[in-house]
């Protein structure tokens, strides 16, 4: 249930504004890849091109290729809706469906994909909530609204919702930035467990977090405000944090940036 | 480096009113004037409303005590002479039925148009479309009434015959020919009249659905319609109810459009397509100028009933909205 992502020559635009320029990289299956870089360098934009969410923004446009194993996500005849069912996403701010119960939130993706028997649905919801380390906290109130949970619980609910449909890839855009340190740790542990099954890409501003959870790290940068962001380098996380091959990376990591 | 806010070189403190910096009663004249103005107008408003209520209730009581028949069940309106007999049964029936028809037609169509504008139409189309709809909401009701009488009534016999063919067996839609000056036509006209306002308010609500709720559905692989079903409609539900209530309020109280289209009578028809019937507002408008003092009292009493019905409808809507509050988007 995990696939390799192979990006080549990818640029993304908002109308006439080019947000990222000519990015090529490989994301290994069953591993965690972290994206780091200064604000506005296009990390979120790039992440959203990987499940074709970028084109949802008015004026959003993409050039280049994203291969998921041997299928081009931007090939002609590829349905973006189908892509999003294979490449799941967790957002910066927890966004459970406010009108749905906890159970229905987790089952939402399954119900889109097809019809399940009640017992099957129950099993998958329980498995996903356990997978997101949330089961023990919510098992007695599955029928209560998801918006009644704490922020950290809501984010784990969103992770449960995303993994319930067994995606090939899980994209996370600063999943912990709205959470306290304890919830953050809970989610980092979770990411460590999930990478056994999924290909994970995570955007983070927290260097320690990137160092803790990821196997590989990609550093993005932009020449100046208004310029498109570029991939500076991608390498083993250990190398990026100890001995990067580009000076700008070292400057950024050690805080000598800008 | 010294910034203006550093504590070493503050400007001297301004002189104080009574020696204490915080506990002093430093009420500025502007505050006092505004307080007086707002308090005064609040009290005035309450007093005016109370006066109106007392006046209407008093005249209604006069009417009710003079009524020689049951005010709620009588199918007649004869409020003059020595033996006045009048009742609101026909008016209540006509008002509720025509408004119900209007809601059943207008709300689904309005929600559909609002969704089209907010989520389907390209921006080039949605902007002018919204503008036209907002314009339609401002058309005076007498214009709709004239259009209804001159265009709608003569062109509805085809629809009436069709309804009679397929639904005539229910009794509600049997049609015996003749001019389409029935409660059903009134309902259609009211639907057209309230469509713009319901559309307009629903569209505003749909446009306010937070991006993150829509993206939550999109990222799960929802199609556009599924996004609407999972995120937009649940978020907009209370807004749709409010919009409908706004429309319903207008339909219940509509006067001129009903008066120009309906051929009034004091009958309750089983078929909605038969001419005749009446509504509270239409009845008041058509009788008030010729009524004597007691006749006016009777009409005022009927107006009070309309007011109570409107209050009840609004209260019910509020209950529905409040019951769903726990699940509303506001908590997220
Ligand atoms: N919806 C949008 N419309 C137009 N331009 C946008 C939009 N979203 C982002 N941009 C622009 O694209 C560029 C990249 O933005 P992006 O959000 O991808 O940066 P980021 O690296 O995720 O930043 P952060 O770390 O602050 O989240 C920025 O210049 C930004 O102004
Ligand atoms: Mg971002």
Key traits:
heterodimer; A: 258 residues; Rossmann fold; 6-stranded mixed β-sheet; B: mainly alpha; MetI-like fold; two-stranded antiparallel sheet; flat; binds adenosine-5'-triphosphate; binds magnesium ion; ATP-binding (chain A); transport (chain A); nucleotide-binding (chain A); Phosphate import ATP-binding protein PstB (chain A)
Could you characterize what this model shows?
- Chain B: The chain crosses the membrane at residues 42-66, 86-117, 129-152, 172-198, 239-262, 298-321.
- Chain B: InterPro entries: MetI-like, MetI-like_sf, Phosphate_PstC, Phosphate_Transport_Permease.
- Chain B: Its main location: membrane.
- Chain B: Residues 92-317 form the ABC transmembrane type-1 domain.
- Chain B: Keywords: Cell membrane, Membrane, Phosphate transport, Transmembrane, Transmembrane helix, Transport.
- Chain A: It holds the Pfam family ABC_tran.
- With 258 residues, chain A is an alpha/beta fold.
- Chain A is built from 10 helices and 10 strands.
- Chain A has helices at 43-49, 80-86, 102-113, 118-131, 135-138, 151-164, 181-194, 207-213, 237-242, 247-253, and strands at 5-14, 17-27, 32-36, 60-68, 71-72, 87-90, 169-173, 199-203, 216-222, 229-236.
- In chain A, the strands form 2 sheets. In chain A, strands 6-7-8-3-9-10 form a 6-stranded mixed β-sheet, with helices on both faces.
- In chain A, a hairpin with a 2-residue loop joins β1 and β2.
- In chain A, α3 (102-113) runs parallel beside α6 (151-164).
- Chain A is globular and about 55 Å long.
- The model of chain A has no long low-confidence stretch (mean pLDDT 92).
- Chain B starts with 28 loop residues before the first helix and ends in a 9-residue tail after the last helix.
- The longest helix of chain B is centred in the first third of the chain and has 38 residues, at 29-66.
- Chain B is mainly α and 332 residues long.
- In chain B, 66% of the residues lie in helices and 1% in strands.
- Chain B has helices spanning 29-66, 89-120, 123-137, 141-155, 157-167, 183-207, 211-219, 224-253, 256-261, 280-287, 293-323; strands at residues 77-78, 85-86.
- Chain B has a single domain (77-328), classed as MetI-like (MetI-like fold).
- The A-B interface holds A 51, 53, 56, 58, 81-85, 88-89, 91, 93, 95-100, 108-109, 112-113, 145, 147-148, 158, 161-162, 165 and B 123, 212-213, 215-223, 226, 230-231, 234-235, 237, 324, 326-329, 331-332.
- Bound molecules: adenosine-5'-triphosphate and magnesium ion.
- Adenosine-5'-triphosphate binds next to β2 and α1 of chain A.
């Amino acid at each position: 249930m995990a696939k390799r992502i192979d990006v080549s020559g990818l640029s993304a635009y908002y109308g006439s504004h080019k947000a990222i320029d000519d990015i090529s990289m490989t994301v290994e299956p069953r591993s965690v890849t972290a994206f780091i870089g200064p604000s506005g360098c296009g990390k979120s934009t790039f992440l959203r091109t990987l499940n074709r969410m970028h084109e949802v923004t008015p004026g959003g446009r993409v050039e280049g290729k994203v291969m998921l194993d041997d299928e081009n996500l931007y090939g002609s005849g590829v349905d973006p809706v189908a892509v999003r069912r294979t490449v799941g996403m967790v957002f910066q701010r927890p966004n459970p469906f406010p009108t749905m119960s906890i159970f229905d939130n987790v089952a939402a993706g399954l119900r889109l994909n097809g019809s399940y028997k009640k017992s099957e649905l129950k099993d998958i919801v329980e498995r996903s909530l356990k997978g997101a380390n949330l089961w023990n906290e919510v098992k007695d109130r599955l029928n209560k609204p998801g918006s009644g949970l704490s922020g950290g619980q809501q984010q784990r609910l969103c992770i449960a919702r995303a993994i319930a449909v067994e995606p090939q890839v899980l994209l996370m855009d600063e999943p912990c930035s709205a959470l306290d340190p304890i919830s953050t740790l809970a989610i980092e542990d979770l990411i460590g467990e999930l990478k056994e099954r999924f290909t994970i890409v995570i955007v983070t501003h927290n260097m320690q977090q990137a160092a803790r959870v990821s196997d590989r790290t990609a550093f993005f940068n932009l020449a100046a405000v208004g310029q498109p962001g570029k991939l500076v380098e991608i390498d083993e996380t250990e190398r990026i944090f100890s001995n990067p091959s580009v000076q700008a990376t070292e400057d950024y990591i050690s805080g000598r940036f800008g | 480096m010294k910034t203006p806010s550093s504590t070493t070189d503050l400007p001297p403190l301004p002189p104080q009113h009574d020696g204490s910096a915080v506990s002093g009663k430093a009420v500025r004249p502007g505050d006092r004037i505004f307080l007086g103005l707002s308090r005064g107008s609040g009290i005035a408003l309450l007093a005016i409303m109370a006066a109106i209520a007392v006046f209407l209730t008093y005249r209604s009581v006069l009417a009710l005590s003079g009524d020689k028949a049951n005010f709620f069940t009588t199918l007649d309106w004869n409020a003059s002479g020595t033996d006045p007999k009048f009742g609101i049964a026909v008016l209540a029936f006509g008002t509720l039925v025509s408004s119900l028809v209007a809601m059943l037609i207008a709300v689904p169509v309005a929600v559909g148009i609002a969704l089209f504008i907010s989520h389907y139409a390209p921006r080039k189309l949605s902007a002018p479309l919204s503008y036209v709809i907002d314009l339609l909401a401002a058309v005076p009701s007498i214009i709709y009434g004239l259009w209804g009488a001159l265009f709608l009534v003569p062109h509805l016999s085809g629809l009436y015959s069709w309804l009679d063919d397929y639904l005539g067996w229910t009794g509600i839609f049997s049609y015996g020919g003749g001019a389409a000056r029935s409660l059903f036509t009134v309902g259609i006209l009211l639907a057209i009249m309230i469509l713009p306002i319901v559309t307009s308010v629903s569209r505003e609500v749909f446009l306010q659905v937070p991006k993150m709720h829509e993206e939550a559905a999109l990222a799960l692989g929802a199609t556009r319609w599924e996004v609407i079903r999972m995120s937009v409609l649940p978020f907009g539900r209370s807004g749709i109810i409010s919009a409908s209530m706004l429309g319903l309020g207008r339909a219940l109280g509509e006067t001129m459009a009903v008066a120009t289209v309906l051929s009034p009578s004091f009958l309750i028809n089983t078929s909605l397509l038969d001419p005749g019937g009446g509504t509270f507002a239409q009845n008041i408008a058509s009788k008030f100028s010729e009524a004597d003092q007691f006749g006016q009292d009777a009409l005022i009493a009927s107006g009070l009933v309309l007011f109570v019905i409107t209050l009840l409808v609004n209260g019910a809507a509020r209950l529905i909205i409040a019951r769903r509050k726990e699940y509303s988007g506001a908590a997220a």
